[in-house]
């Protein structure tokens, strides 16, 4: 039997929920430090919830 590959599910930076594949989520590098990939789920995009970069503390809409 082969090794099982662990799939890391992305977590929304705003609401900390797992983002299931195939949803209308978005990801982009932190506009301030560029070190962290910010994930935003469909709902948080829709409602324009704030996110906070865990690396530099930058917050954005
Ligand atoms: Zn979210
Ligand atoms: Zn940052």
Keywords summarizing the entry:
single chain, 61 residues, mainly beta, two-stranded antiparallel ribbon, binds zinc ion, two-stranded antiparallel sheet
Characterize the structure shown.
This protein is mainly beta and about 60 residues long. The protein has one domain (about 10-60). Helix content is about 10%, strand content about 20%. It has one helix at about 40-45, and strands spanning about 25-30, 35-40, 50, 60. The radius of gyration is 13 Å and the shape is globular. Bound molecules: zinc ion (2 copies).
Describe the protein's topology.
Elements: E1 26-29, E2 37-40, H1 42-47, E3 51-52, E4 59-60
Antiparallel strand pairs: 1-2, 3-4
Bound molecules: zinc ion (ZN) (2 copies).
One zinc ion binds next to loops.
Compact overview of the structure:
With 61 residues, the chain is mainly β.
Quickly give the structural class: mainly beta
Unreliable stretches (pLDDT < 50, length at least 5) are: none
User: Biggest sheet, in brief?
Assistant: 2 strands, antiparallel
Oligomer: single chain
- Work out the strand percent: 15-25%
Order of helices and strands: EEHEE
State mean pLDDT (0 to 100 scale).
Answer: 92
Strand order of the largest sheet: 1-2
The number of domains: 1
Cα distance spanning the termini: 46 Å
With helices defined by DSSP (H or I, 4 residues minimum), what is the helix count?
1
Q: Please give the radius of gyration in angstroms.
A: 13 Å
Name every ligand kind in the structure.
zinc ion
Fraction of helical residues? under 10%
Q: Write down how many β-strands occur, each being a DSSP E stretch of 2 or more residues.
A: 4
What would you call the shape?
A: globular
